[in-house]
Predict the structure.
Amino acid sequence: MKKRTLLALVLVAVLSAPFVQPTPVFASDDEQPGFFARFFGSDDDDEESEEEERREHEEHEEEEEGRSVGMLPVKTGVYSDECGSCHFAFQADLLPERSWKTLLGDLHNHFGDEAAVDEAHLKEITEYLLTNAGDHSQSPRVGRMMSSIGDATPIKITDIPYFKKEHRKIKASTVERASIHSLSNCSACHTTAPEGKFGEHGIKIPQ
Amino acid sequence: MSKQFFVALLLFALGPVSLSFGFTPKSPLVESFQKGLATKAKKADPGFTGFSADRGKAFYSLKHGDHKKKPETRSCETCHTSDPMNSSKHIITGKKIKPLSPLVYRKRFTKVKKIKKWFRRNCKWTLKRSCTAQEQGDFIEYIYSL
């Protein structure tokens, strides 16, 4: 290669460096910040993002202190076997005790479908979910989630105000992708969901 | 080149091929479960002469309508695709489902407890009723015929 060509290549590389930034994973092209927004920052929900930053910082500190921020990892067992074969085995602490009671009380009509399990299994599942329900959790994130519920008894995790707030920027068209399918398909985007980790770091939104 | 070496090479090359054509034997437990089903099927229909993979195949793709919730029309294919050798996704939750065929996924149709459980759950989901003994036996026959 000629010296001049090499020099030109180096020059191009150096000049373009500020433009080629490692871009975080976004849901899709249309959700990426615009070209200028990358340099000047997006101007929407400034207040919110400040609040979020503060919260993330808090969570980081909590993690540093060794306190559990996330949800309870689901162990392999009757619960993951019986419930997790049709859908993501949702962490017990994602719902309060009263919600689990309501939900388990009507498995013959589980969101319109038959999902009954035999009695011995039901007993074990009930014990597991009620003991580890969200209202007994020490995790600060679960605490925020539970207090957002108030006195309500949601049976859908996706109905919880905290959940809705955290997912408000996800477009319906993103959720409809075959690779995601539903907001209740946690592990489609939260790669560390089975371990109970729903933090920003584990998120990878598939195409 | 020695003849032995050539034979060894041939065996090595054909190994995977013969495996993919190999049939999966039913465990004795599954055999006896099916025998029980046959007794019941005979009771329900004295003309019953044995389970049929062809009937099982037809049952697999048979559509059952009038469900209150979407999808209104359901068959085994709704979640397991038209080929039981494929892995698939649950139509409602999007959860991955491993292939039904024990040829592809060895654990399938090996434990009677699990077979019973999934017939119980999935027949209600798909047909809005329990499957008959003959339907179950035909289904197992079909799955093992692949």
Observations:
- The longest helix of chain B spans residues 3-21.
- Chain B has six helices and two strands.
- The radius of gyration of chain B is 19 Å.
- Chain B touches chain A at residues 68-69, 89-90, 92-95, 117, 121, 124-125 (CB under 8 Å).
